[in-house]
Write a structure and sequence with these properties.
heterodimer, A: 222 residues, alpha+beta, five-stranded antiparallel β-sheet, 3 helices, 9 strands, flat, B: 124 residues, mainly beta, three-stranded antiparallel β-sheet, 10 strands, elongated
Amino acid sequence: MSWATATYDPCPIEDSEMDGPLILKPQVGRVVVAILLLLFGFLFTAFSFVMFYFVMLSKFWLGLICPFSFLLFSLAIDIIAFKHLLKCFNPKPTVVLSQRNLYPGAELEISWMFQGQTRRIHQLQVRLIGRESTSFQVGTDTKRFESNFYDQKIFDSEDPEEIAKGFVVVQLPSDAMHSFKTKYSEILWLVQLTGKIKAWPDLDDIYPIRILTLPKEELAHG
Amino acid sequence: MVEVSFDRHGLDYCPMESVCVTVEWSSENIPKKLQLEVLWQTEGKGTSDDGVFAIEEWTDFPNAGKRQWSFQLPRGPESMEGKHFRIQWYLSCKADREDKRYFPFVVSRTRSPIQLARDVSQDK
């Protein structure tokens, strides 16, 4: 008996017998997002200027509409990229789960500790999110469908001490669907930290967690 | 055509539970080769994914009769119904050159597919 899609994770089970605290890794690094957006924005801006140059050479003035709209679009990307660049300087949290092996119905502790100028965050929210996503591929086109089936605020505070270093105990729903990942479909569980910062882009970090299928001893056969 | 039946009428099983299927054939319809597969499949708006869990192949059959196959289900994936896709388990049966036939069943700790909420907005 073997799985046909072994490279994916349709049936998550324990990686090892050991069960201890787990430091979570962010879904996407802040720096990676900022660099990709800056690169994309730079390429678009450069392309717009090249188009401007050729339209000016041809002296077809009505043709200026095209590079002008491209330039506006690239400006919007540049603004978003700049915002993400500023986000890189936000305080960075280290998020730790009390246990590595999480099952539906389990109680777990999520703790965090910020590094950097933590006092800048005047409100911190932590959410537990369950997300369903699937994609449809035809040739080179991919259409993605995504929605949250679970979204619970588990922590909300304006206390600077609790924001800098804190924890929350949460119980996973007993009827929760376990994590599931194939080539086109996914059930994702996420811990989201959002922090409000005055006159600066807000902190918004997402950490995937892996909810396992129940072990044999937990299953009651009727 | 061969007949396939499960050991339980409700066709709802728990993960890790044992399943017994019975395949029957008549003396006029003795298959030469028969293949059974246990598999799950994602169905819905996205491109379908699947995973074959177990395969059983038979090539020797008495004149008329039946044969049983038992297997233990895995821990998952559990049957599920969401807004965009669902996970469905099947037993497939292919006898000789007949088309493959699919028999759906449920694998879930609640004995019914796990229902995901359609969409949840943030409780600000």
